[in-house]
Amino acid sequence: MNETPGLIVLKPVFHNNIWGGRRLEQFGYEIPDGPVGECWGISAHPHGDCEVVGGPFDGMTLSQLWDEHHELFEGAKGDRFPLLIKILDAYDDLSIQVHPDDAYACEHENGSLGKHECWYVLDCHEQGHIIVGQHAHSREEFAQMVKENRWYDMENFVPIQKGDFFDIKPGTVHAILGATLILETQQSSDVTYRVYDYDRKQADGTLRELHLEKAMDVIDYDAQAPTSGKVTAPEVDGVTKLMSCKYFDVLRVRVDKDDPRILAQDHPFMCLSVVEGEGGTITTAAGTWQVRKGSHLVAPFGCGDLRLEGDMTLICSYV
Ligand code: ZN
Questions:
Q1: Which end of the chain has fewer CB within 10 Å, C or N?
Q2: How many CA atoms lie within 13 A of 80 on its CB side?
Q3: Is residue 261 annotated as a catalytic residue, yes or no?
Q4: Is the same domain home to 296 and 167?
């Protein structure tokens, strides 16, 4: 293929979760019945591999594109598409959990990737909180707190507002609490060690499995727990770099009516999710795509500059 590649539009995959709600309908999605907690907007993970909608690759999955058309991701290394972009609707509290890093996951979870994740808060309760970090200084102290059910002493609660951002490194104890809507950018991994699940029962009356030993292996007891998720990075021409780590960079891009933005796509690929606003268009050398709140796209290698027009906020990421 010598032509300039166009944007790749993906169809999200939804997951039912006991803590989920119905607010993903706000994004114009047709979601399954019951509580739905997760929209996997950009994913090639075997637990939810997104299909391409329209264009020359219509009907293929993102993992197939990665394997069979790697020129679309030129320069990106690894045997799998490395990122996973989700929108989470926490109607109820998520379990208190922690994720391993690459080295631990590779050894203990069949070669899986670890999970560095980050959250952009799309909506929350006025007095909303989130758990990021914990207060035990050692494995022994942590084990003692768990034994004594001292969850409130152990967890670090942070007040949240719409537009906050949290970098959740592997080894960080965390939980999204009820009434929170979040866009999550993460490594393509589904390895979670559950520390505490409030003793709540699933539909079939059983408790979800906990993984305390593994959790205690991977918790970073020296990490400084944050006190705020307020974004302090500057906004330049609508673009704010929310974070940068060895796995991915995350940007927030705000586009106003009558003020189009040009975004250079000089990375192996770029993930684009429209999270707010009426929507608009994205134009590249290959054409123009209509997008709206809830759209998820991948801008492939060599697609050139993206011209964004309309009224929308996007969260973008690249490796
Ligand atoms: Zn997590």
A1: N
A2: 15
A3: no
A4: no
User: Tens digit of pLDDT per residue, the chain (319 long)?
Assistant: 457 999 999 999 999 998 999 999 999 999 999 999 999 999 999 999 999 999 999 999 999 999 999 999 999 998 999 999 999 999 999 999 999 999 999 999 998 889 999 999 999 999 999 999 999 999 999 999 999 999 999 999 999 999 999 999 999 999 999 999 999 999 998 899 999 998 888 888 899 899 999 999 999 999 999 999 999 999 999 999 999 999 999 999 999 998 899 999 999 999 999 999 999 999 999 999 999 999 999 999 999 999 999 999 999 999 9
- Selecting among 22, 139, 150, 194, the annotated active-site residue is 194
Assess if residue 227 is contained within a domain: no
| 145 and 68 in a common domain | yes
Domain count, the chain: 2
Give the distance (Å) from ligand 1 centre to CA of residue 134. 14
Identify whether 224 is part of a domain.
Answer: no
Instruction: Answer yes or no: are the C-beta atoms of 306 and 265 closer than 8 Å.
Output: yes
Spacing, Cα 131 to ligand 1 middle (Å):
11
Do 150 and 43 fall within a single domain? yes
Domain presence at residue 142: yes
How many angstroms does the Cα of residue 117 sit away from the middle of ligand 1? 7
What is the Å distance from ligand 1's center to 186 Cα?
A: 9
> What is the CA(99)–ligand 1 centre distance, in A?
6
Q: What residue numbers bound the domain in which 18 lies?
A: 8-218
Domain of 157: which CATH number? 2.60.120.10
